Amino acid sequence: MPHHKSTEKRMRTNERDRRKNIAVRSEVRSAIRRFRANVGKENASELLRKAESVLDNAVRKGVLHARTSDRQKSRLAKAAHKAASSKS
């Protein structure tokens, strides 16, 4: 147990932040999974936009690093382009 009030507060805020981060990461993973499951279908472009938006929000909230988000968005766009070109 902590011996200082500030340490108790740090424990509370760390737990609160940890739960928020888990929720944001879960939302990111779900958006990516939804896109990958529908990559060849007609609503793929909308799901790509949604996934990119969720990734941007995670960066803004400080959960993901900007380069991590950029790399994931690049891979999603590459998959979308590959599916569109093979479809044509």
Structural description of this entry:
This protein is an all-alpha fold. It has one domain: Methane Monooxygenase Hydroxylase, Chain G, domain 1. Helix content is 82%, strand content 0%. It contains 3 helices and no strands. The protein has helices at 5-37, 44-60, 66-87. Helix 1 runs antiparallel to helix 2 and helix 2 (44-60) runs antiparallel to helix 3 (66-87).
- Uncertain stretches of 5 or more adjacent residues: none
CATH architecture: Up-down Bundle
Principal-axis shape equals elongated
| CATH level 1 class label | Mainly Alpha
Provide the helix percentage: over 70%
The secondary-structure element order is: HHH
The CATH topology turns out to be Methane Monooxygenase Hydroxylase, Chain G, domain 1
What's the name of the CATH homologous superfamily? Ribosomal protein S20
**Cα distance spanning the termini:** 63 Å
Number of domains: 1
Number of strands: 0
pLDDT averaged residue by residue? 95
Radius of gyration: 18 Å
Instruction: Summarize the main sheet.
Output: none
> Structural class of the secondary structure composition?
mainly alpha
Summarize this, please?
This protein is mainly α and 88 residues long.
List the keywords.
0% strand; 88 residues; mainly alpha; Methane Monooxygenase Hydroxylase, Chain G, domain 1
Compile the SSE list and pairings.
Elements: H1 5-37, H2 44-60, H3 66-87
Helix pairs in contact: 1-2, 2-3
